[in-house]
Prior knowledge:
heterodimer; A: mainly alpha; 0% strand; disordered C terminus; B: alpha+beta; 5-stranded antiparallel sheet; 8 helices; 35% strand; elongated
Amino acid sequence: xxxxxxxxxxxxxxxxxxxxxxxxxxxxxxxxxxxxxxxxxxxxxxxxxxxxxxxxxxxxxxxxxxxxxxxxxxxxxxxxxxxxxxxxxxxxxxxxxxxxxxxxxxxxxxxxxxxxxxxxxxxxxxxxxxxxxxxxxxxxxxxxxxxxxxxxxxxxxxxxxxxxxxxxxxxxxxxxxxxxxxxxxxxxxxxxxxxxxxxxxxxxxxxxxxxxxxxxxxxxxxxxxxxxxxxxxxxxxxxxxxxxxxxxxxxxxxxxxxxxxxxxxxxxxxxxxxxxxxxxxxxxxxxxxxxxxxxxxxxxxxxxxxxxxxxxxxxxxxxxxxxxxxxxxxxxxxxxxxxxxxxxxxxxxxxxxxxxxxxxxxxxxxxxxxxxxxxxxxxxxxxxxxxxxxxxxxxxxxxxxxxxxxxxxxxxxxxxxxxxxxxxxxxxxxxxxxxxxxxxxxxxxxxxxxxxxxxxxxxxxxxxxxxxxxxxxxxxxxxxxxxxxxxxxxxxxxxxxxxxxxxxxxxxxxxxxxxxxxxxxxxxxxxxxxxxxxxxxxxxxxxxxxxxxxxxxxxxxx
Amino acid sequence: xxxxxxxxxxxxxxxxxxxxxxxxxxxxxxxxxxxxxxxxxxxxxxxxxxxxxxxxxxxxxxxxxxxxxxxxxxxxxxxxxxxxxxxxxxxxxxxxxxxxxxxxxxxxxxxxxxxxxxxxxxxxxxxxxxxxxxxxxxxxxxxxxxxxxxxxxxxxxxxxxxxxxxxxxxxxxxxxxxxxxxxxxxxxxxxxxxxxxxxxxxxxxxxxxxxxxxxxxxxxxxxxxxxxxxxxxxxxxxxxxxxxxxxxxxxxxxxxxxxxxxxxxxxxxxxxxxxxxxxxxxxxxxxxxxxxxxxxxxxxxxxxxxxxxxxxxxxxxxxxxxxxxxxxxxxxxxxxxxxxxxxxxxxxxxxxxxxxxxxxx
Lengths: 558, 361
């Protein structure tokens, strides 16, 4: 192997060490600090699990995760089956709609559903107007609402994985079962579903980890007894109360440990159980069947219902964005552009910050991701697998862990957090794996002989990279670039710990406007703006990458 | 007695006709092979028998029961065993569960399931591997598992869809004989699909040669080889010299035919079904297999169909030799088993046995 590759690997390891390993180690170290004495020990952890309250948050989070996973699975399995196996019209549009929540910010859904399903939200008001109910029904405040909102947000991950599984498994596996006498449900539960478990599991683990990551949804719904929410409250609001601060840090570490362990467990299991590649010689593109008329109608109704729930998000936010004083009315009556005027004229800095930070994070991402992809795919530098592993682990780390660790690591000593560059750096670190995986897979498709031909013709490695590899990689990489940008653009978990006055981004602006005084109008207008921007970006990828669908498919991970 | 009857079977995919109203009968206990190039409709026919495809027209009768005309009988109710081209051994189940799957559905008592699985594993030579996962087996072993799974429930009919095509040549040859003797011993009526003519010759009681959804010929292996019904069959099975020719005369008494070729005014061909309706002047192919041509260094006396040619080149294939002999520009391939001292360019005499020369279209 060449010296250049070694130097490159060293430089990339330095970046990972400084931006990932160092801050996360500080977080872990800090969790062992004993506040009263300044000594070290496991006292914080003991206290955390002995304290019935904190233990309850832990148990609550596990419960929520379990419920969300059950719900998404229950609703996702038939949905994936319909999308993958039934011949029906509008397949593309339904798939796109059902997968939409992947690219919508999580908080957008919460706001929309509060407006629509809230105590005096649209649905309750309509039901009361027509006299079906006297007192409003509590649709979303409480555990059930939390399960509903988080499930809808995470449903695409189950549907994506499973429908790919349903499409890709060799049809003869099911035919063999059919010939052996297994019909209908029996075949589905003994053959089809078990064969899809690896692809299901990859999505399921991300679903299960979401409640360990999402601090904002419980908070907005008035629920705080969950690990990420309590971490956020303890660290962001009660940092002067050392006990609460340390309990918050422990909560972050505990969440991270749960996430990482489950992630690794699932990865190990999926690797072990990979069924693909075992069978050979099939040409069929899966089994698409023509369902009977009643089944078809049922399938349509089901898809339309899910699609409506998803569509409620942009529609409700749109209504709220263009109106004011939408209170106690099923639909707004006072239409105005005031919200947008306020955003654009009084706080354009939020938009500027959002683009600036995401843009800089993106440049870091490309400058880092391409060389890493090159190292992993094209070289045999020692330790490249470890590099890949560390970066992939970032998929599982809760955003809140990155935010808190940056706050702890870069405040004193290396006072990076006092400069705005910390914002893009944190966004970059948080979304590292996204761009890398995209670059990685397009690199795998690039025939090495194309590069070798360039080197034989006398071009150096660097020249070959810029004149041959990069142009050929560009399409795959561009999709990765846009997805990375969308993710960074929507990031709030990390940024909320690090921002200072003047560094606010759009997601933080949305959060603050809700938080400050129920300024739904402005928050909604900001969220709507973000959705519009996201859509424009998606449209760009679909032009490049062939369909919005593919664009969404690129992002398997959160 | 016909155990499986395929009546007027017609199946198309969009605009492509896969099976064009074919008529077939499989006798009880017989091993019938559907043979043909890819896309000839052999696999589609097999899948129709299994019930994995629904044909547009026609019926399939198994053991007297129609599978289509009185309501579609699904694969799970047809009592068949099937071996798939890619084995389709379920990767998430151990060997035992793979094989026991159908028996469990039939609610066979547990101890009996165990006994039968053990028996069938012994039969296919996989005893002791019950607890393995398919990924821990070789391709050949997986194929045996697929066979065991198809046989364990004593099916009325065994269907095999190119079961050996994913295996390497040596293994394939061994398994051919094994499958044949196993199926013969159990006396199961079976339909075997392959595109490998050698495999079909070895394994079948009767062969059905198919092309573009049509049946070209049905017959015993040696009949199909010795008396191919047409040029396609003759070309697909074995090697054949096709000599462009024009019918000269049909001999009234023997039914034999004389033709005019590029190298001779008169070549005698044997009587065949085709020669009945021949007209003088018709363009045909006088055809002969390479092993039916005799070679002489000196002209032999009193032989019919003897022609002088030039040795163009020789090809050594180990157990035999191909000589390519030019008869006035018409290249004839000759198979000889012994070494020939003749050099390329030397003159030779060929005798094309009249009783082995056929008229084909």
